[in-house]
Structures are given as structure tokens and as C-alpha cells.
Specification:
The chain is mostly helical and 184 residues long. The protein has helices at residues 7-17, 21-40, 45-59, 102-121, 131-151, 162-171; strands spanning 65-70, 83-87, 91-96, 173-174, 179-180. It has two domains: 1-40, no CATH class; 45-153, no CATH class. The structure holds zinc ion (ZN).
Length: 184
């Protein structure tokens, strides 16, 4: 795996950024233990955060959140069910079946996001109708856009190796002055 960080990478980072290897190892362990699994539970997060921002603007509250949660009912009859709950100015919660193939899961979640979009955000909601069908169309447009991103546009964000990431990060460091050029 070209992107699993090995001991040589850790040594390289320690030298480049003048930090103890032990500190880097603690950070990596904590990342793997506490962040990685949480990331795996996020679906369509670009779309979720874009809609969340739009909903905050439309409702005039910075507290509005979109949450995704596995369906609390684990029974078989819920294994195919997506649902959502909307509380004006507070939250939009999507429940998804936990044990479902990820592609199918994303399609269902995108349909539920369509409900929020039609309810709150669509500019011409007064001239089109067909609630459930439109949510499904929204899902198809969303998933097509995301597939396009993964297949084509995401390439410009992908580094070729850990070394190249370290190089880009060190370019942003002003090591001579002992200062960071970005974020402090
Ligand atoms: Zn629906």
C-alpha cells in the first residue's frame, strides 16, 4: 500500500519538521483509532455540507445540522428502508439501513437529501411538482455528479506518494524563520 505510513516515512517527517518520531507515532495511532472509523460512516459528505450551508442561509440559523444515522431498528423489515425527519431551523436527520451495499446506500441517502432540497432549497419549487419522483431524480443527478468527481476531477487532488505529500507540506513551511506560512 503506497499510502500506509511506514517507519521510513516517520523518520523523514521527523527530520523534515524537526519533531520526535514518538509524537508522530502517537498522532498516527490516534488518527487510526478515533478518526478513520468516523470517516467510514460519512456518506456524500460534500453534498451534505453544501446543503447544510444552504439550509443555514435560508433558515437564518447557524445551528441547522444534517445528520446521517444508521436505522435504530435492526429488524429485517427495516433492512431496505431509508427515512428522514425534519425539524424546521434545527435538524434534518436521515436514517439508513446499516447493512447495505455502499453504492445502494448512497443512492438512498441522496434521495432523502432530495426531500430537504425540495422542501427548503429548490428555487423553483412552486412551478414543479412530484415529490417522491423528484427526490429520486435529485438522487440520480447527485450520484452522477459524485461519480464524475471520483472518476475525473478527483485526480488533481491525488498525490503520487507519501514523499510527495511531505514535499508539498514542507514547501509551505518557512523553516528558515521557524514559522509556518499557513495556519498558526
Ligand atoms: Zn422519499
Amino acid at each position: 500500500m503506497p499510502f500506509s505510513i511506514n517507519n521510513d516515512d516517520i523518520k523523514r517527517m521527523a527530520e523534515c519538521f524537526n519533531i520526535e518520531t514518538e509524537s508522530i507515532k502517537i498522532l498516527i495511532d490516534d488518527f487510526n483509532k478515533n478518526i478513520k472509523e468516523k470517516i467510514s460512516l460519512e456518506f456524500l459528505s460534500h453534498m451534505v455540507s453544501a446543503l447544510e450551508k444552504m439550509a443555514r442561509e435560508v433558515t437564518g440559523t447557524d445551528l441547522f445540522v444534517i445528520e446521517l444515522k444508521p436505522h435504530p431498528e435492526k429488524k429485517k423489515e427495516f433492512s431496505n428502508i431509508f427515512s428522514s425527519k425534519y425539524s424546521p431551523k434545527r435538524f434534518f436527520t436521515i436514517y439508513y439501513p446499516e447493512d447495505m451495499e455502499p453504492k445502494q446506500k448512497r443512492v438512498g441517502i441522496a434521495h432523502e437529501l432530495g426531500h430537504l432540497y425540495l422542501l427548503l432549497l429548490l428555487e423553483h419549487s412552486d412551478i414543479i411538482n412530484g415529490d417522491e419522483a423528484l427526490c429520486s431524480i435529485f438522487s440520480i443527478i447527485t450520484i452522477a455528479d459524485r461519480c464524475q468527481f471520483y472518476k475525473k476531477e478527483s485526480k488533481k487532488y491525488i498525490h503520487s506518494s507519501i514523499q510527495s505529500i511531505i514535499k508539498d507540506m514542507s514547501l509551505l513551511h518557512n523553516t528558515k524563520q521557524g514559522k509556518y506560512n499557513i495556519s498558526n
